[in-house]
Amino acid sequence: MVGSFITGFGISIGLIVAIGAQNAWVLNKSMRGEHPAVVALVCCSIDALLITLGVYSVDWVQQRIPGLVPVLTWLGICLLCWLAAQAFWRVWHGSEGLRVAVAGAAVTKWQVAGQAMAISLLNPHVYLDTVVLVGSVGAQQSYPGYFVVGAAAASATWFFSLTGFGRYLGPKLRSPTAWRWFDATVGGVMVLVAVSLVP
Question: Nearest-5° angle of CA 169, CA 150, CA 153?
Answer without folding.
Answer: 40
